[in-house]
Amino acid sequence: MADVITYRQAVAEGIAREMRRDPAVVCLGEDIGAAGGVFKTTAGLYEEFGAGRVWDTPISEQAIVGAAMGAAMTGMRPVAEIMFSDFLACCWDYLANEIPKVRYMTGGQVTVPLVVRTANGGGLGFGAQHSQATENWALTVPGLKIAAPATPADVIGMMAAAIRSDDPVVFFEHKGLFAGKGPPAPPDHVVELGHAAVVREGDDVTLVALASMVPVALSAAERLAEEGIDVEVVDLRCLVPLDVMTVLGSLAKTSRLVVVEENPYQGGWGGTLVSIVADEGFGLLDAPVRRVAAACVPLPFADVLEREVVPTVDKVAATVRDLSAY
Amino acid sequence: MTRVPQPAVGSETGTGPGSEAAELLALYEEMAVIRRTEKAAHDLFLSGLVKGTTHLAAGQEAVAVGASAALRDDDYVFATYRGHHHALARGATPEECLAELMSRASGLCGAKGGSMHLTKASANMLGSYAIVGAHLPLAVGAAWSARLRGTGQLAVAFFGDGATNIGAFHEALNLAAVWRLPVLFVCENNLYMEYTPIADVTAVADPAADRAPAYGIPGETVDGNDVVAVREAVARLAGRARAGDGPGLLEARTYRHYGHSRADPAAYRPAEEVERWLKHDPLDVARGRLAELGMPAETLVAADQRAEAVVQAAVEAAKKAPAPDPRDALTDVWADGGARWRT
Questions:
Q1: What confidence score (pLDDT) does residue B10 get?
Q2: Locate the Transketolase-like pyrimidine-binding domain: which residues (chain A) (predicted)?
């Protein structure tokens, strides 16, 4: 086994492991077959599993996700790719009205064991319609599980859990992390959905982050350590199930909370998290909670403009610094 | 359906109307049960026992019953919010349908779905969907799944004329054709997309059948009020699709006897048009065919009486059924039966 694996390779490896294990797992999406995906996140699947299990589709997001739903209701475990998470809007009916509701509105008669994978987030200069962090969109609809891994090993472990889940999972792969490297996952690696990870221990302030914001939070923590501020970083890993208990456990130690979100402040997932903390963890806090989230504007194209909008190490460090002095 | 045991009709003794008539009599009785179930739904709504809304399919029974008669029991069916007839044609009982409409625990979906979401998954009737056109890709996916599993099953999506102008219709037809899937698209063209004539908002005469050739699918039309014609057309298309020759599309011309939904008295329909279609009632068409086959009038009367009795008993049973346990509101979100979304 290689010493390191890229996040991009981990996506294909995570899917391949499940396809080897379970013949009911099939993939569909645009350019995912011989082309290996526009982000090369399905590279090698077509060669290993063939056209009978890796299906290229037209540019038809409704047909892709709708067909995945129909297949999932009838004995398959489809893994559908929506190329950019912005395009979830093109098939939003399926994410909002069909997939999360059909089990409930039929009184539990059917299950929908599918994964909708999608490349999420900014950092690559693709402009306002190909750069959004849309994980908060999915959070508005009860009935969807939401995974957003930050490391290659978590990609593999959470992909296994997502594909094995009897519930629908929206799986956000971060574009800005694809080239990143990390230790490979051991064989049979499964990271159950809904378990946050404390990725850096500290006593002074808790930073809660997701996906691309985890390395930002860790970099801020390293910088703040030089200033004598001891930061704990929690990688939330999933928005549903939301691991509130790990966050509250961390706050029992630090008493201070900063949430780091790439999605806009307006409607961002941090609003849900901090409302629970205010409700159930108020007594743990010695300071107000802070949210570092994207500005409420469309994502601009130029790097210098994008940096102004999204959370950066500087912004996170400044917020933590202020809060630790409160 | 409530396939009521049929009395022997003639053929065994070598006299009387024969097996063709016996089969048609069974279809007639299924349609008679649906007609009376829809009338009961209408009356129960007016008496305050059905909440929300209903989209009744009275007048369109022959599409559901004729198509169902041409399908295998394990084929998949997807329907719309005007879907009572499809649930009944695929094995739901009038009692479990009416109980669902009346918010009873014994309803098809435990009173979580209502009129627009009748589903009988144990019979592979995989749901009624209330977002126009959304279920066509689902049927494509079920057909894809059947192909992958090698089961020889077919998937059928029933939809209204209005669905032919929404994107999912076009995406579904194209993908089904490109992948040559065993799926049938059956349009129930009742001439009105809600309150507006479909002809006013569609540039072609047959909104489904005229579009199908653009996707490489032969588009066929049929008299949707003739249960025999529907059965024959669906049987032909089903055979073709099952043989691997790709999807089929059938546009069935029909007419709803009630308005679009409970809020709609359908005053926008010309009186002479309504009169013309009421004279072409699918039950009357079947009666005419049965008479030609020599079916005695008293046999039809007996079938009507059985249908009446089944629906009356269903109404009484549904009225007596208990309401759901309020705690059921927090079940069945996830596959584990619960609704837990956080630690």
A1: 42
A2: 5-180
* A19/A142 same-domain check: yes
pLDDT of B5 higher than 50: no
Regarding whether A14 and A149 lie in a shared domain, the answer is yes
A241 φ/ψ sector (left φ>0, alpha ψ -120 to 50, else beta): beta
Catalytic residue at A189?
no
Structure confidence at residue B17 as a pLDDT band (50, 70, 90):
confident
User: What DSSP letter does each residue of B79-121 carry, written as one string?
Assistant: EESS-HHHHHHTT--HHHHHHHHTT-TTSTTTTSS-GGG--BG
CA distance A152 to A84: 19
- Select the residue of B111, B137, B174 nearest A70 (Cβ to Cβ): B137
Residue that is written with structure tokens 């009225």 in the block: B319
Q: Which residue of A has its CA nearest to B123?
A: A109
Tell me whether residues B134 and A67 touch, CB distance under 8 A: no
Q: Give the pLDDT band of residue B7 (cuts 50, 70, 90).
A: very low
Which residues of chain A register pLDDT less than 70? 1-2
Instruction: Name the residue range of residue A295's domain.
Output: 197-324
**Cα distance between residue A60 and residue A212, in whole Å:** 28
| pLDDT computed for residue A80 by the predictor | 98
Is A18 within a domain? Answer: yes
Q: What are the structure tokens assigned to B30, written together?
A: 């299924």
pLDDT at residue B88 greater than cutoff 70: yes
Residue numbers of the domain that contains B181: 17-315
pLDDT class for B318, splitting at 50, 70, 90? very high
- pLDDT for position B12: 45
Q: Which one of A101, A109, A244 makes the best mutation probe of the B interface by having the most chain B beta carbons within 10 Å?
A: A109
User: Rounded to an integer, what distance in angstroms lies between the CA atom of residue B37 and that of residue B318?
Assistant: 12
Residue B188 near residue B158 (C-beta atoms within 8 A): yes
Q: Is B97 in contact with B119 (CB distance < 8 Å)?
A: no
Long-range contacts of B335-342 (CB under 8 A, 24+ apart): B335/A103, B335/A111, B335/A113, B335/A165, B335/A166, B335/A167, B336/A166, B337/A108, B339/A142, B340/A241, B341/A142, B341/A240, B341/A241, B341/A242, B342/A194, B342/A240, B342/A241, B342/A242, B342/A243, B342/A244, B342/A276
Spatial CA neighbour of A116 closest among A151, A90, A154:
A90
Q: Provide the domain count of chain B.
A: 1
The whole-model pTM stands at: 0.96
Q: Among the three residues A153, A182, A211, which one is the final residue of a domain in this structure?
A: A182
Same domain, A205 and A139: no
If one counts every other C-beta atom within 10 angstroms of the C-beta of residue A322, the result is 12
The mean of the pLDDT values for chain B is 95
Give pLDDT, residue B15: 57
> What is residue B248's predicted lDDT score, i.e. its pLDDT?
98
Predicted pLDDT of residue B182: 98
Q: What is the CATH number of the domain that holds B42?
A: 3.40.50.970
Are A98 and A232 found together in one domain?
no
What are the DSSP E strand ranges found in chain B? 76-80, 125-129, 155-160, 183-189, 192-193, 196-197, 219-223, 248-253
Flag if B172 and A66 touch (Cβ within 8 Å): yes
Compute the nearest-CA separation of B341 from chain A (Å).
5
Same-domain status, A141 and A262: no
